[in-house]
Amino acid sequence: MESTVMIKGSKSGIILVLDEKLEFSKLQTDVAKKIKESAKFLGKTHIALQFQGRTLSDEEVQTLIKIIEDNSRLKIACVIEDNEKQEEKFKKNLDQALSKMNDNSGQFYKGNLRSGQVLESESSIVVIGDVNAGAKVVSKGNIIIIGNLKGNVFAGAGGNKRAFVLALGMQPIQIRIADFIARAPDKEETKGIFKDKASLFYRKKSKKSVQDLSSNEMKIAFVDGEKIMIEPLNKDVLNEIKF
Amino acid sequence: MGEVIVVTSGKGGVGKTTTTANVGTGLAKLGKKVVLIDTDIGLRNLDVVMGLENRIVYNLVDVIEGNCRIKQALIKDKRLDTLYLLPSAQTKDKSAVNPEQMKKLAEQLKDEFDYIIMDCPAGIEQGFQNAIAGADSALVVTTPEVSAVRDADRIIGLLDANEMKQIHLIVNRLRNQMVKDNNMLSSDDVVEILGVDLIGVVPDDEQIIVSTNNGEPLVGTEALAGQAYMNICRRLLGEEVELLDLNGKKGLFSKIGNLFKKN
């Protein structure tokens, strides 16, 4: 007959491996028996206890503790919960739910993000306001900024290459989409550096190196091949967006 | 009931203490009862700028610790009867005071003074937290440099997070010629980045250095910076004052030219 109760000892406590299907009343007697058998070996001490192999209600845990204490000279100092499996399950389910959510839902944030402020979101995010230099927006989905983008953005933080960044004023210090990083070009040595905010992001088709990113036209950043591209937003580009 | 104003910037050396001294003196000249509090414990210098160093007996930490009454620590200005200074301690550090204590102190001073102006230390640590604790509004000082603007942005974010109701911006040490040559951010550029109300632009002025060294704030004098600070004071009192023409001294010909333009 296979044992329905097993005791595993560790340095500071014991692990009770219980049969999953056995009726609880039967399990109680089995536990009592097993503990009685090992009582001498276990000795008289305070221990930590952990249950494995079976999900127990609080009541059942209390009952089992009482049985153990009655049948041996052990004192149970605490019960360690066996959460690992559950945690894994939780995480898996959560991740699944979130990745689904990312695709077609989002979140709004109104107000300016200033240097040092970080906005993180599991879903796509729409910022109504400016993202100033030194501020950061991180999203597992898309990032849309109705305002000037002068800080850092990280779209598709979970690894989604199809994520995109939209901004009214596109002058970011750095854009990250999934595993790709693009940074603002180093300022060229020209007179009046502050007036000439022209940037050097590559344009998709014409491969023109310089385009004025500060003009007040909605622009989109997305991954094309192995590069992050920035283009003015128009119908063609919109049609290409897939997520 | 008085108003507590904190003068802050994040970055050091942009002119917090100079602004505190000049705005405080200006408000006093306009007939308000003003107290300046130096919250930069350990690096005291507002008293030097005000030329009151030799009068210090008690300081901020003495008041907080109960070694003396507030009245005993307040130093009356040597020029104006309605202006007082509460100097900071030089021998302690920022941790000698906590925000609650500063709040309480500000509340006590509100009964007696129209304006309580806090000179904030550079940085965003405890000293900053102390200075903004009891404040009703903030004067954020920045120079037209990207580093100073970046820090000012951070400061404004922190002030927002602390629910500061009113934030005014002062662009300090602007050099008009450099702005014209496109080598310096203009005050408009700074306002665009920071997105808060501009209350004044102070030109870079050698006279400021002279006045600081002499311990005599130049607010209200003929110097351009002096006029600019006076305008800031007027705006704080709710007056509508136009921005100063920063083109400075003009030749006779341009003056004549301007006369014709007006007509």
SSE topology:
The complex is a heterodimer of chains A (243) and B (263).
Chain A: E1 5-9, E2 13-18, H1 24-42, E3 46-52, H2 58-71, E4 75-80, H3 84-104, E5 106-110, E6 118-121, E7 124-128, E8 136-139, E9 143-149, E10 152-155, E11 165-170, E12 174-177, E13 180-183, E14 219-224, E15 227-232, H4 235-240
Parallel strand pairs in A: 2-3, 3-4, 5-7, 6-8, 7-9, 8-10, 9-11, 10-12
Antiparallel strand pairs in A: 1-2, 11-14, 12-13, 14-15
Chain B: E1 3-8, H1 16-29, E2 34-38, H2 46-50, H3 60-65, H4 70-73, E3 75-76, E4 83-86, H5 99-110, E5 115-119, H6 126-133, E6 137-142, H7 146-161, E7 166-174, H8 176-180, H9 187-194, E8 197-203, H10 206-214, H11 224-236, H12 252-262
Parallel strand pairs in B: 1-5, 1-6, 2-4, 2-5, 6-7, 7-8
Antiparallel strand pairs in B: 3-4
Helix pairs in contact in B: 1-11, 5-6
Describe this structure in words.
The complex is a heterodimer of chains A (243) and B (263). Chain A is an alpha/beta fold and 243 residues long. Chain A has two domains: 5-83, Transcription Regulator spoIIAA (2-Layer Sandwich), CATH 3.30.750; 97-240, Pectate Lyase C-like (3 Solenoid). Chain A contains four helices and 15 strands. In chain A, the strands form three sheets. Chain A has a six-stranded mixed beta sheet. In chain A, strands 6-8-10-12-13 form a five-stranded mixed beta sheet, with no helix packed on it. Chain A is elongated, with a radius of gyration of 30 Å. Chain B is α/β, with parallel strands linked by helices and 263 residues long. Chain B has a single domain (3-262), classed as P-loop containing nucleotide triphosphate hydrolases (Rossmann fold, 3-Layer(aba) Sandwich), CATH 3.40.50.300. Helices cover 42% and strands 17% of the residues of chain B. Chain B contains twelve helices and eight strands. In chain B, strands 3-4-2-5-1-6-7-8 form an eight-stranded mixed beta sheet, sandwiched between helices. In chain B, helix 1 (16-29) packs across helix 11 (224-236) and helix 5 runs parallel beside helix 6 (126-133). Chain B is globular, with a radius of gyration of 18 Å. Chain B starts with a strand and ends with a helix. Chains A and B meet through loops of A and helix 7 and helix 9 of B.
